[in-house]
Amino acid sequence: MKPTLLFLALLSTLAPAAPPKTPPKTPPKAPAPAPAPAGELDAAVRARIEAFFTHVASGKIDEGYARLFEGSTLAKEQPALLPTLVSNTKLMLEKCGPAENGAVLQVRSAGRTLKEVTCILNCRKRPIRWTLYVYFGEGRWQILDADADLELGSFFDNEKPGER
After folding, report:
1. How far apart are CA 132 and CA 126, in angstroms?
2. N or C end: fewer C-beta atoms under 10 angstroms in the chain?
3. pLDDT of residue 120
4. Residues 6 or more apart in contact with residue 49 via CB below 8 angstroms
5. DSSP result, 105-116
6. To which H or E segment does residue 87 belong?
7. Residue 101's beta-bridge partner residues?
8. d(CA 124, CA 120)
9. What is each CA distance from 26 to 22, 37, 94, 141, in whole angstroms?
10. DSSP structure class, residue 1
């Protein structure tokens, strides 16, 4: 074998191995929701809550709940819940008088994805306290639960000593 051919044969055995295969690129994960400052709500959630109280004050309770739970998995997973909430709300309004207006009083955060929203619905005879639980899941903020009570002391249960 000629020296040139020998050199080429030797060189071919020293050639670098094929570059390692790179794994297929996976799409980046969706970013986690931006942490809202304590006491703040997502604008779309706030709008749904305000629309809920507007509907209730105008006597459109069914539409109010439909708007409140819009985009929530709750309505799909528990379809009997909305009619129950509507019925209970009508019973409370019989005791408290016609609804006049509602407002968000307090927003508390439990981590980045769960918020407790305390609201007041002012009625002619007495107020109703609403507690809503808002959760960031499935890529969006949704209202998971709504509870109302007539106990006036419940407006002050979370109060720190000396705040009165």
Report:
1. 20
2. C
3. 96
4. 41, 68, 102, 104, 117, 119, 132, 143
5. EEEEESSSSEEE
6. helix 81-96
7. 122
8. 13
9. 11, 32, 57, 26
10. -
pLDDT of 101: 94
Closest of 104, 129, 121 to residue 42, by C-alpha: 104
Provide the angle, in degrees to the nearest 10, between the axes of the packed helices 43-57 and 61-68. 170
Report the pLDDT value the prediction gives residue 16, as an integer from 0 to 100: 52
**Using one digit for the tens of pLDDT, what is the confidence trace for 80-122?**
888 999 999 999 999 999 999 999 999 999 988 999 999 999 9
Dig out the tokens for 44 from the structure. Answer: 């779309």
Q: How confident is the model at residue 147 (pLDDT cuts 50, 70, 90)?
A: very high
> Is pLDDT of 62 > 60?
yes
Q: Per the structure block, which two tokens stand in for 46?
A: 């706030």
Instruction: Using alpha carbons only, give the angle 64, 69, 74 rounded to the nearest 5 degrees.
Output: 140
Query: Which helix (H) or strand (E) covers residue 88, if one does?
Result: helix 81-96
